[in-house]
Specification:
With 1465 residues, the protein is mainly α. The protein has 61 helices and 11 strands. Strand 7 and strand 8 (625-626) form a beta hairpin.
């Protein structure tokens, strides 16, 4: 190749040419070296040509291998040559190979060799292959040239940028930065990095961004990396938005242990608002926020330290307002890494939302106004929303529903419909999950979207339409949500767009057809769905802001629905109750309320008659006459109306009789409308005290009721049931619409409410008495007046129709007689299903008579929660004892509501879908064997008004009545301890069946200030059962029993200790730690009281313990009574311990705990109350029942025994000594034989509940308490292991060793008890279960002892002695394992593997401790012994094996013979 011509000859025409000539002359050394390597000189921005790049590299390396002066000359020549931008540009372009490849095959070369030579040639078209590397890059990869050349090139960036000004990658600055990337080796990263940082401020933005992208590839040394990171941190806040993605990626990728927290905190606090800004990068428009999110994703993927730091700082945030939107972005990016990080992030977010550490405002900060981030994080956010809804907690589901709403409503530049479909798809997944919580939350989201995004939802009307196709899968509350969503979309304003309007009309027609079909169905469950849909549509049409035209439409819709009262009275009752809820919530406009009021009052007045002092007898359906009388006239002679229940029930018109089914519902609707319209109930006050026309009390006497015809028995029982439901609705209405802190609306109203409560007690007692007397009680389901939603037929069950009659009773043109005939057929079916004349011997006796009233609870109208506030009015009575029966009724109602609420709250999330309140409509079977249903079937669903309340909500509503509750319990305790009767004898009257003199002294409740005087007509005093229902002694016992149970549940609740329930806790403490207050002061709300401080809370809890301790009556109080009091005291002490206190309070609590422990021991030593005798059994000669055997009251009280032992042992000053005392004392006296029979029931002194049958209960309870002591010991030793060596650790070691000795002795004693009771398998299995756990706790302490005795080997002797007791216990565990396997006991065999594994670990661990203490140990095989100490063989004897084989062969022969015989046959 010819050398290049002399450069100096080309630049002699001008001064500029002269300057270039000098440069060329200085660069001759560089050019000559290139020529020697077979490379042309770079010029005119043209690519250089090279024969072989490898030859050129070797030539350059050899030129740099000489002396230092020669190297300096070459580098100066190179620097001089590259000053010319044309030469620099040529050197930055990719080189081309100019050598022609000649293939010279061997003479005998084959075809394959020729193909190989052609492949290695890599000849491009036109014969010029391109290498891809520039001359500058080749020079930069030579170590001796790299640093100086790189620094020179970087210093040229500002000038090159000004000369070209482009932002393309092929511009001169872009070529320079590109040549510095991906070098084979970085020789001096520190110098190159410093140069980059120095020239960065002089460069343009796009060059700075390129420098930032280049830095991570050049920084190799830690000091340089830290320096660059610090510099980026300093300039982060002032950086341009276009540089943020590169900065974020660099910072997260290069964090270290020193600056990781600083970097993450800087991002959290200094991230600028990005908004929707878009910049041009690399020729494309890029969203800055989206690029920043992707940069952080890359950084977290590359740096585990950054990911860990982000997670730890997010976990440390405990206040909702300190959470930033960036925190959620980072957590979602961590969750996208999958694996354990995803699981950890999900748990953290669940905890934050469930415990209130984060709120919906955090989601707003992360989503609203961040469109770029939303595009990148939308899948993660949608997954998070679904996961939160599935979590089950209220806080999580609320956050998930809010996030769904944000994602659906967020503005999108493009693909908005696609994002909306994805959100609706997620909601559809929840709707089909079968979990009630998920379904309700998804429907709540849809209902919220209808308020502001109606048009968007109507664009997806097909999705909304699918909700109407699967109504059978929704519960009653969910049906309300479904129809609310659909009604909102159907009634939306018109003109929103052609497509939207078309979808709206299509959805409206679908809803109209559905409602018509459901209302015309023969199945009650379908009619129920239709009524709910009708009500929700009417609510939407008649909102307070609706026009008159819409109100008229709603009025016509409801008018058509009112017509069902003749054919389906139960469904009309449901319609009235649903309308009552809508009216009470204020969801109907005033014109529609006025129309409803006229209709409801008109229906109510249809049931009332003018008052007649002496009503005539009535004729029953069978032809006989029934004497009637007016009951419970509170209005006196001034009354003008009465409720003729007896006349309507005995009417010959079936429609008239069945109209009583909606009497309570219509009453409730009329009273609610009256209050909503006028603000008071004065207009209908007459019905509160109006008398009831009922059967004469003589008809309810035992002989009269048993000898009465079946139709009269039905009339009597039905009248009582209807009267009960009527009074319950009156109490619901007046208790709701009066002020609780203003003497309940006046003395007159207050007195009437108390008297009505007394009437209710008497009526329920009479109904229970009647049902118990009748061998085959009549069915009351058709006119019970219970909530119609409680009556649902089976699917496919259609009522029978007479021949020749139309199939549907609501068909147009049907005569009125057709309805009466149909109703008559329904009643005939009912009586045929359960013939009243059936002999007692053939009657259904599967349900005891005493439980029949309990089965009637499903047909009773429930008392609303606000009725419980009447407890505060009981002490307003002038004579307290006469108001005890109403108090007992209210306490039982409160107890039932709390039990139901706590059962629902404690049910696992996956089971709540199967709970009663969550069952789909018409799919819950209620077994009422003695009360068969009539024409409405046997499938029932819960009461519509029985909304599932939490215990918190119930107690918060009763906060103002807590002082009255304390006074009520105090008064009842005084009544019970007055010496009139013993509590055990009073309990006989709880059922209301004993006709005794317990009703003496019964009178109507009187309130100071009431003008009305007591009259004989207020109560039913001529019947012994009615009088006994108001007896003070049984009522006081019921109040104490239910009241203590309710308070026990309240004080045991963990939520009572939470901050947002602090006011309830303070109100409870104030009520029970002070002296009883006057009734007037009790009505003052407690919310105005100041917040109690921690010492006051502790002192108040201790005073409350003294209050409940005063209710104790010792052995005369009964086991259940005393245990409840003890649990309440223990719960109060637990609450006090949860409050931070000082040394004095801790000492007081220790004394209180010791007193509770002593009280628990005393209860275990008392025999409990004697069991009441059965009146049917013959009495003793003295006329009294034979006393129950000692300890009989403890039978079946295993749970009580365990709780008492826990309080006794765990709160005693020395728990292990207490366990030892029991083991060596009472438990050692229990005989090992017999296991069953009367002798096994004989108690051991002094504990009546301890005998051979209950020994395993005591054993298990003691082992569990010892396990708690071992756990406490292990925790203290583990904590001690973390402390430093010193005097404090020496004291801790001594204390731990002392505790180890006590626990070891108790452990050995417990296991030794198994040697006495050889055949009690329950004790052996419990020994293996708990014993293995004890050894596990002991294993946790061995690392400390190993380290301790390695440093103090001379102190190991006490430890060795303490372990001998534990070793004695482990030997017994080995023996139990061996015997269990030998005896083939499956209960023990399943525990053997785990127990032996733990025992082997314990042996190895103890050996390590002894070796660390430099002690000689001896190990050997144990002798195989049984629990009696006799040596046994470790293997099964050969003779036994042979006998087993012979038996097996004989059995097989017998089986073969039987098989042959069967084949022959």
């Amino acid at each position: 190749m010819d050398p290049s011509p002399k450069r100096s000859a080309q630049y002699r025409e001008s001064p500029l040419h002269a300057k270039k000539a000098r440069i060329a002359g200085d660069a001759d050394v560089f050019f000559d070296t290139l020529a020697e390597g077979g490379c042309t000189a770079p010029q005119d921005n043209e690519p250089v040509q090279v024969e072989d790049p490898r030859v050129l590299r070797r030539c350059l390396v050899l030129s740099m291998a000489g002396e230092a002066e020669t190297n300096a000359t070459f580098q100066n020549s190179m620097q001089t040559a590259l000053q010319d931008q044309a030469v620099l540009g040529s050197a930055l372009l990719p080189m081309t190979v100019s050598l022609e490849v000649r293939i010279k095959p061997q003479p005998n070369a084959g075809h394959d060799q020729l193909l190989s030579l052609c492949a290695t040639a890599q000849v491009w078209p036109q014969g010029v292959p391109v290498t891809g590397d520039s001359l500058i890059r080749l020079l930069l990869n030579i170590p001796g040239i790299q640093t100086a050349l790189a620094c020179a090139l970087l210093h040229k960036l500002p000038d090159a940028m000004e000369a070209q000004g482009g932002q393309e990658a092929d511009s001169l600055p872009g070529l320079i930065l590109g040549s510095l990337r991906w070098l084979d080796e970085v020789v001096d990263a520190h110098r190159i990095t410093s140069t980059l940082l120095d020239i960065m401020p002089k460069c343009s933005k796009w060059v700075q961004q390129g420098i930032l992208e280049l830095l991570p590839e050049l920084v190799l040394e830690e000091d340089c990396e830290a320096q660059v990171t610090d510099l980026v941190l300093q300039r982060f806040q002032s950086a341009e938005l276009a540089d943020l993605p590169a900065l974020l990626r660099f910072l997260l990728q290069h964090v270290n242990s020193q600056n990781a927290s600083q970097v993450v905190e800087l991002l959290r606090s200094s991230m600028p608002p990005l908004g929707d800004q878009v910049v041009r990068m690399s020729g494309q428009m890029v969203d800055i926020e989206e690029g920043a999110v992707e940069a952080m994703r890359t950084g977290l993927q590359c740096s585990h330290l950054a990911a860990d730091t982000v997670f730890s700082q997010a976990k440390a945030l405990t206040e909702p307002e300190v959470h930033t939107g960036l925190d959620l972005w980072l957590l979602l990016l961590l969750a996208s890494l999958a694996g354990k990080r995803c699981e950890a992030v999900h748990k953290l977010l669940k905890k934050k939302f469930a415990e209130g550490l984060a709120d919906n405002a955090w989601l707003d900060r992360a989503v609203c106004g961040h469109q770029g981030a939303l595009k990148s994080l939308f899948p993660s956010l949608l997954e998070l929303a679904g996961w939160l809804v599935q979590a089950g907690q209220a806080g999580c589901q609320g956050a998930g529903s809010h996030l769904y709403t944000l994602l659906f409503a967020a503005p999108h530049l493009d693909k908005a419909a696609q994002y909306e479909q994805e959100v609706l798809g997620g909601l559809q997944g929840h709707l089909g999950s079968g979990q009630a919580g998920e379904i309700s939350t998804a429907l709540a989201v849809l209902l919220g979207l209808t308020q502001g995004h109606t048009c968007q939802l109507l664009q997806h009307a097909h999705f909304v339409g699918t909700l109407l196709d699967c109504l059978d899968n929704f519960s009653q509350a969910q049906l309300h949500q479904v129809f609310a969503v659909v009604s909102e979309l159907v009634v939306v304003s018109k003109g929103a767009g052609s497509e939207v309007e078309t979808n709206r009309q299509r959805l409206g027609k679908q809803l109209e057809a559905l409602l018509h079909k459901q209302m015309q169905s023969d199945e009650v469950c379908a009619q129920r769905v239709g009524i709910i849909g009708t009500i929700k549509l009417a609510e939407r049409l008649a909102t307070p802001s609706s026009s008159d035209l819409r109100s008229k439409e709603a009025e016509q819709l409801l008018g058509r629905s009112f017509k069902v009262r003749h054919q389906q009275p139960a469904m009309f009752a449901l319609l009235c109750d649903e309308l009552t809820q809508a009216v009470a919530a204020g969801r109907l406009c005033e014109p529609l309320r006025d129309w409803l009021k006229l209709s409801a009052v008109d229906q109510l007045e249809g049931f009332l008659d003018d008052y007649v002092e002496n009503p005539t007898n009535v004729q029953c359906k069978g032809g006989g006459h029934l004497k009637g009388s007016n009951w419970m006239n509170l209005n006196g002679s001034a009354g003008q109306v009465m409720l003729p229940l007896l006349r309507i029930v005995s009417s010959s018109d079936p429609l008239h009789r069945q109209s009583l089914a909606y009497l309570p519902a219509v009453t409730r609707l009329a009273l609610t409308l009256e209050f909503q319209t006028l603000g008071s109930l004065d207009g209908l006050s007459a019905i509160l005290g109006c008398p009831l026309h009922m059967p004469h009390l003589d008809q309810l006497q035992r002989e009269a009721l048993l000898t009465a015809p079946p139709d009269q028995q039905w009339v009597v029982c039905t009248s009582l049931l209807l009267a009960i439901n009527w009074l319950r609705e009156l109490l619901n209405a007046w208790a709701r619409h009066v002020q609780p802190h203003q003497c309940m609306g006046g003395a007159e109203v207050q007195q009437n409410l108390l008297v009505r409560l007394q009437n209710l007690c008497q009526l329920e007692a009479l109904l229970a008495h009647s049902l118990a007397l009748l061998p085959n009680p009549p069915s009351l389901h058709d006119v019970s007046g219970c909530h119609p939603s409680a009556v649902i037929v089976k699917k496919g069950q259609v009522q029978k129709k007479s021949k020749g009659k139309p199939g549907k009773m609501s068909k147009a043109g049907q005569s009125p007689d057709a309805g009466s005939e149909a109703a008559e057929d329904q009643e005939n079916m009912a009586h045929n299903a359960s013939p009243p004349g059936k002999p007692a011997a053939e009657a259904d006796t599967t349900v005891p008579a005493l439980s029949r009233m309990a089965q009637m609870q499903g047909q009773l109208r429930p008392l609303d929660p606000h009725v419980l506030c009447l407890l505060g009015q009981v002490q307003c009575a002038a004579l307290f004892q006469v108001a005890l029966a109403p108090a007992a009724l209210l306490m039982e109602e409160l107890h039932g509501k709390l039990v139901e609420a706590m059962t629902h709250a404690q049910r696992p999330a996956f089971l709540k879908a199967a709970a009663v309140q969550d069952q789909p409509a018409g799919k819950l079977l209620c077994n009422l064997p003695c009360i068969p249903a009539l024409h409405l079937g046997t499938y029932v669903v819960p009461h519509a008004r029985r909304l599932q309340q939490t215990p918190q909500e119930i107690w918060e509503g009763l906060k103002s009545t807590l002082p009255a509750l304390r006074g009520l319990l105090t008064s009842c305790s005084e009544v019970l301890t007055s010496g009139m009767l013993k509590l055990n004898n009073c309990l006989l009257g709880l059922g209301g069946l004993e006709e005794s003199s317990q009703g003496e002294g019964v009178g109507a409740a009187r309130v100071e200030g009431a003008s009305q005087e007591a009259t004989p007509d207020l109560l039913l005093t001529d019947h012994p059962v009615a009088s006994a229902a108001l007896a003070p002694m049984p009522a006081a016992a019921r109040v104490m029993q239910r009241g203590l149970h309710c308070i026990q549940q309240l004080t045991a609740a963990d939520w009572l200790k939470q901050p947002h329930h602090r006011s309830l806790l303070h109100a409870f403490i104030r009520a029970f730690c002070q002296q009883p207050q006057s009734p007037t002061l009790q009505q003052e709300p407690t919310s105005a009281a100041p917040v109690m401080k921690a010492p006051q809370v502790i002192e108040g809890c201790l005073q409350a313990c003294e209050t409940f301790k005063a209710f104790s009556r010792g052995a005369q109080g009964g086991l259940e009574h005393e245990v409840a009091l003890l649990h309440i005291q223990a719960n109060l002490i637990d609450i006090a311990e949860s409050v931070p206190g000082n040394a004095a309070t801790r000492e007081s609590l220790a004394v209180a705990k010791e007193e509770v422990s002593t009280a628990a021991e005393h209860i275990l030593q008392q025999g409990g109350e004697p069991e009441p005798s059965d009146p049917s059994e013959p009495a003793t000669p003295q006329g009294t029942a034979a006393p129950a055997p000692a300890g009989a009251s403890w039978k079946g009280q295993q749970g009580v025994i365990g709780d008492l032992i826990h309080l006794w042992v765990s709160w005693s000053p020395q728990p292990c000594q207490t366990v030892l005392g029991l083991l060596q004392g009472a438990l050692a006296q229990v005989p090992s034989q017999p296991l069953t029979g009367k002798k096994a029931q004989e108690p051991v002194h002094p504990y009546p509940g301890l005998n051979g049958s209950s020994l395993h209960v005591w054993y298990k309870a003691l082992f569990q308490e010892l396990l708690q002591q071992w756990s406490s010991h292990a925790n203290s030793v583990v904590a001690l292991h973390k402390t430093r060596q010193g005097p404090l650790q020496q004291e801790g070691a001594d204390a731990a060793l002392s505790q180890l000795k006590q626990c070891g002795k108790a452990f050995a004693s417990l296991l030794t008890l198994n040697k006495i009771h050889l055949k009690r398998i329950q004790m052996h299995s419990q020994a293996l279960k708990c014993g293995s756990k004890v050894i596990q706790h002991c294993l946790r302490t061995l690392p400390f002892w190993e380290a301790w005795y390695a440093a103090h080997p001379n102190q190991v002797e006490p430890f060795s002695k303490a372990l001998r007791d534990v070793q004695a216990g482990t030997r017994i565990l080995y023996v139990i394992c061996a015997e269990g396997k030998a005896n083939k006991n499956i209960t023990i065999a399943n525990l053997v593997v785990g127990a032996k594994h733990v025992l082997e670990e314990f042996r190895v661990g103890v050996t390590a401790v002894m070796l660390a203490a430099k002690q000689d140990i001896q190990q050997g095989n144990l002798k195989h012994k049984d629990l009696t100490g006799q040596e046994v063989s470790s293997q099964v004897p050969f003779t036994q094996i042979q006998m087993d084989e012979d038996v097996s062969e004989a059995e097989q022969q017998v089986q073969d013979g039987e098989t042959g015989n069967s084949d022959t046959e």
